[in-house]
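Hi everyone, sorry if this is the wrong subforum. Our group has a chain we'd like a structural model of before ordering constructs, and none of us has done structure prediction before. Sequence below.
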Amino acid sequence: MRFAVAHKVSTYLVVMFCYFALIGGGQLSPAISYGGTVAFLISWWWEAPRIKLERWGWVWTVLSIFVFAYCLLAAIVTLDFLYVGAEFLIWLTIVKAFNRRAARDWQQIYLLSFLMLVAGSVLNPALTYGLFFFGFVITITWALTLFHLRREMEDNLLVKHAADRASERVEVRRILDSRRIVGGRFFLGTGLLSFGVFVGAAVVFLALPRVGIGFFLTAHASNLAMLY
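Answer:
Right subforum, don't worry. Here is the predicted structure as tokens:
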């Protein structure tokens, strides 16, 4: 698999797991849930050089202003700030998916995905949230590792050394299209590592005793009683 495709696939998997963790509880309207899914899938093909993203910048800006105004008004009228905020978060993720240009855009996608995961912990009480969270743990490891490599490629000068001539610059695109950077071993190894970390964290969480806040309040009250 080409490096650029591997990074793109892992990133889209991260977003989809977070997105389904958000809408899996059925709290959001079907129009938002299904419409967001379709729009996000369409964004896969919306990228340079197939699409001149600069021409569409003003369109996304105007649409975002209208969506923000609508969400703000809806939140004030209905007082459902959490639900309206989740819907606006979906919109921001879709907009960013349609405007992928540089490393900072991918980084913002990861941030928006994590916010959807956090919102989903409140809006999705079903057991499916745990499955989506597990998928997020695996895929975010792939995505962040590949993102770090991609950012280094884009931010630093890539140099190709030849024996009989001076060094020359190598286009980043040629490296991104390489099939020799990542392979099945990378995904398997990092996936197993993430799984091990996830299981270890779960075991530690379940093994540690959990004390409610009532314990501290009771102990505090007992200390006061002894003083008097």
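For your construct planning: The chain is about 75% helix and 0% strand. Strands lie at 159-160, 168-169.
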